[in-house]
Write a structure and sequence with these properties.
Elements lengths: L2 E5 L9 E7 L6 E2 L4 E6 L4 E5 L4 E6 L6 E3 L3 E6 L15 H7 L12 H7 L5 H7 L19 H13 L4 H17 L10 H9 L18 H18 L46 H9 L25 H16 L2 E9 L1 H13 L7 H15 L5 E5 L5 E5 L5 E3 L1 E3 L2 E3 L2 E2 L7 H16 L13 E4 L19 E5 L3 E7 L2 E15 L5 H16 L1 H7 L1
Parallel strand pairs: 12-16, 16-17
Antiparallel strand pairs: 1-8, 2-4, 2-7, 3-6, 4-5, 6-8, 9-19, 10-11, 12-15, 13-14, 17-19, 18-19
Protein name: Dihydrolipoamide acetyltransferase component of pyruvate dehydrogenase complex
EC number: 2.3.1.-
Pfam families: 2-oxoacid_dh, Biotin_lipoyl, E3_binding
């Protein structure tokens, strides 16, 4: 019987760790290849990870709520098959057996990481005939290939060879031979590394076996899935003019394990930052950890803060999405010298225009946010300084990169915290398409199903905090962008119209911008452009 250890894969976008939300299997359960085994939360989203192995769950290497880094052991799966014993090979010792099932990667695993990654996508020519009739999943995680019926067998042969006492030199030579054979062989299964790409294809009914990847070595990227979705939408739009067409923009090594934590502070220690939350990887004895856990409330069942003298009601670890938000806000305020300007705007005519749209076509009438997004995109075309980025090079010099197009970010409040999904190539969408795509990305973000790529890559952000009943704010720029537009609530206010006092629908528009790339004149011109469009939307649409 061989034990296959599945390590936390690279989930893309430079993510180096993930929190275990829920195990979907238990030790002793039987799992099939590609069956979801665990739901994890990264700094970007919550995703389900499928198993690259089939067999019986031998061990779960983590508890719910624990944080694992990329490359750490996630789950061990037993294939239930007895490994053939060689007559010349000595019987494995107890120490070897223990080392074989240890949580840490085997010594040769790092050397053969790339061979394993390719193993699921490029079977050798001599194996192709045997595997031709076998069923292939086509699902490949970084470092864990699954393909036409042979991946697990190849891994078992490698493991058996190690158990039989093969030298490290022999293993290296075998790995080199395997690498040459695999890279020379024709591709038999789609090259898909990210489980997020595979999930996106499944949700939208895209057949990845029919795709040719644009990534290195034919790797299928998220943009390839979206391009396939676009083709279907284009065909549908040609047959039905009302169909919206979303558009995609063609566009880290494992972290070291956390250091051992010192023994927990005693409950009566005068440490204002004292936290009783156990640290993963800590070296405290089990008895001390149990004592600390039972003494969270202090000597008399209360955790008293030494600085304020108040009882601490709850301590919440800063991790996952909350950690990502904290880091992003801190970085923005630390690195960006931002300035803020605002203007009150009469939105009466904009509300009247939307009311007329809604009367004509209630189902497809664009929302106010979609109309404001259209004005924002037009403003960015007129003032491209606000759709750029400061880049710092290796020699310390800086440059300003301006983009040909806009990925419009939308600040969305969700149960998991503040998220910023974005519309790729938003400037190429019509108002109706913009309205439809905004609804889709906001719904996906609030449901917690947005992928890392959908939550990154924006070039300018729109923040509608008016839904919370607030008139204005000083929004924080979404680093590394250089501007963010805030929209307050629309309320009745006294307003002078043609020299007479009237009650009008008024809102406040606020712009925070990076003063390194944009001066007050350009920022004021951009904000005034949008304000004029809001006050006279009919004329504005004629100019767009």
């Amino acid at each position: 019987m061989s034990i296959n250890v599945f390590h936390l894969p690279d989930l893309g976008e430079g993510l180096t760790e993930a929190d275990i939300l829920h195990w979907l299997v238990a030790e002793g359960d039987t799992v099939a290849m590609d069956q979801p085994i665990v739901e994890v939360e990264t700094a970007k989203s919550a995703v389900e990870i499928p198993s690259p192995f089939e067999g019986t769950v031998h061990k779960l290497h983590g508890t719910e709520g624990e944080t694992l880094t990329v490359g750490q052991s996630l789950i061990s799966v037993s294939d239930g098959a007895e490994a053939p014993a060689s007559e010349d090979a000595p019987a494995p010792t107890a120490e070897a057996s223990a080392a074989e099932s240890d949580d840490s990667p085997e010594p040769t695993q790092g050397a053969s990481y790339r061979e394993e990654e390719r193993a699921g996508t490029h079977p050798s020519a001599e194996e192709s005939a045997d595997d031709e009739s076998d069923e292939s999943s086509g699902n490949v995680l970084i470092g864990y290939g699954t393909t036409s019926g042979g991946s697990s067998r190849r891994r078992r042969r490698g493991k058996s060879a190690r158990t039989s006492g093969g030298s490290a030199t022999g293993q290296s030579g075998a790995a080199s031979h395997t690498h040459d054979a695999l890279t020379a062989a024709p591709r038999m299964a789609p090259t898909v590394i990210s489980p997020l790409v595979r999930k996106l294809a499944k949700e939208h009914g895209v057949d990845i076996t029919a795709l040719t990847g644009t990534g290195p070595g034919g790797l299928i990227m998220r943009q390839d899935i979206r391009a396939a979705m676009d083709q279907v939408d284009d065909q549908r739009r040609r047959s039905d003019a009302a169909g919206p067409a979303p558009t995609g923009l063609a566009t880290a090594p494992p972290a070291p394990p956390a250091p051992a934590a010192p023994a927990p502070w005693p409950a009566n220690a005068s440490d204002p930052g004292h936290s009783t939350v156990p640290t993963r990887g800590g070296a405290a004895p089990a008895a001390a950890a149990a004592a600390a856990s039972s003494n969270v409330g202090g000597t008399h069942g209360q955790d008293v803060d030494s600085r304020t003298g108040l009882t601490v009601a709850q301590r919440e670890p800063v991790k996952g999405v909350r950690k990502a938000i904290s880091d992003a806000m801190t970085r923005s305020r630390t690195e960006i010298p931002e300035a803020t300007i605002w203007v009150d705007v009469d939105a009466t005519e904009l509300l009247n225009l939307r009311a007329s749209y809604k009367a004509k076509d209630p189902e497809n009438a664009p929302s106010l946010l979609a109309l404001l997004a259209r004005f924002t995109l037009a403003g960015l075309r007129a003032y491209p300084q606000l759709c750029s980025r400061i880049e710092t090079h290796e020699d310390g010099t800086r440059s300003i990169a301006r983009f040909d197009g806009v990925n419009l970010g939308l600040a969305v409040e969700s149960e998991r915290g503040l998220l910023v999904p974005n519309l790729r190539n938003a400037d190429k969408l019509s108002t109706l398409e913009l309205n439809q795509r905004m609804r889709e990305v906001i719904e996906v973000a609030r449901s917690g199903k947005a992928s890392p790529s959908e939550l990154s890559g924006s070039t300018f952000t729109l923040n509608n905090y008016g839904v919370f009943g607030t008139d204005g704010a000083t929004p924080i720029i979404n680093h590394p962008e250089v501007g963010i537009l805030g929209i307050g609530r629309i309320i009745d206010k006294p307003w002078v119209v043609n020299g007479e006092l009237a009650v009008r629908k008024v809102t406040t528009l606020t712009l925070a911008f990076d003063h390194r790339v944009c001066d007050g004149g350009s920022a004021g011109g951009f904000l005034r452009f949008i304000a004029d469009a809001v006050e006279d939307p009919t004329s504005a649409f004629l100019r767009m």
